[in-house]
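hiii, so i know i said id send this last week but things got crazy w the move. better late than never?? heres the sequnce for the chain we talked about at the cafe, plus the structure i predicted for it. fair warning i was half asleep when i ran it
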Amino acid sequence: MFKVLFLLFIGIGVGYLLRRMPLLQKVEKTTSATIFFMLFVFGLTIGSNDELVAGLGRFGYQAFILATAGICGSLFASYLAYRFIFKKGGKDER
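okay and structure toks below
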């Protein structure tokens, strides 16, 4: 887990330093396509695993609860970030 976070922060730092490079701006446009491709490959891997597909009914509700909790937590965290970081003086700048 710490390796992933370390790589993430290293990437943020390198991205910040190289943010003005034209190549990096072209790569930014392909990010969504890359994520969709990775999700597709992940789905292929899950679908080809017989044990995982057989246990889907047993673990499906737990996965649904975890996914829902993750989404709710992300929405709450983004609300807090908006409220405390992007609003200055407690007033909306719109």
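btw Residues 56-86 form the longest helix (31 residues). thought thatd interest u
miss u guys!!
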